[in-house]
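GPN-loop GTPase 2: structure tokens wanted.
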Amino acid sequence: MAYGQVVIGPPGSGKTTYCDGMSQFLKLIGRKVAVINLDPANDALPYECAVNIEDLIKLSDVMAEHSLGPNGGLVYCMDYLEKNIDWLQSKLEPLVKDHYLLFDFPGQVELFFLHSNAKKVIMKLIKKLDLRLTAVHLVDAHLCSDPGKYVSALLLSLSTMLHLELPHINVLSKIDLIESYGKLAFNLDFYTDVQDLSFLHYHLDQDPRSSKYRKLTKELCEVIEDYSLVNFTTLDIQDKESVGNLVKLIDKSNGYIFAGIEGSAVEFSKIAAGPLDWDYYRVAAVQEKYMKDEENFVHND
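Answer:
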């Protein structure tokens, strides 16, 4: 059994930066991490890549050979990956024994709520390799500054949750930059908790473009509230505490915190219902102390 994350989200939401920062954090707290790049359009990887889809298929080759645009090419690549899932499985088999897996997927949102190829790839891997995965869906926090775009992000998040059928965490990424896009109409809790979207209607009416679709937007908000599934956590990938809080949520959702624990159903229930307070910081603190001691030794020497 292996654990990991399926990192998804629209282009520009920070998926690749997230995979880089998350892998560094997980290594710091003592986990062996393997990042798997499944985005054939991602040709500038800042992280060390354990498996790269470009070894199987390249988007540029697909576009040239089949006269496809970027979107059509990405759909073709996911379809090709699904048909050659044995290639990916063989690459992952040596890693699942002792690595935590980060899957960096393409940013084309249609792959995760219209097309089924990406979902089929994930489900086949889960079945064949006994994986425990959480979908981490990144949304750029600047969308909160525009009520119309925020509603669109909510609808996209809900559609993706229903389509993928995985443990799912929605994340407002780049939260440290949110104020640079303008003052929010409400407190941040309003956007993360998604409790009463009717308050958005007044602000939607202030924009001539949005006011034309007021009735449609109202109906969409009611759909989102009726499902009552969408909420967000926030993330500043450069802030250790912010990343750590997200890791705790992910570990609880995919069952990582239960790995190696033997006990009754009651004991498992207590852990599941308890606060997010397990101590992995101790490992990080020990490593930090070691690094500081080593720096001091070199400096004094």
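The chain has a mean pLDDT of 86. Strands lie at 2-8, 33-37, 49-52, 100-104, 131-140, 168-173, 232-234.

Cheers.
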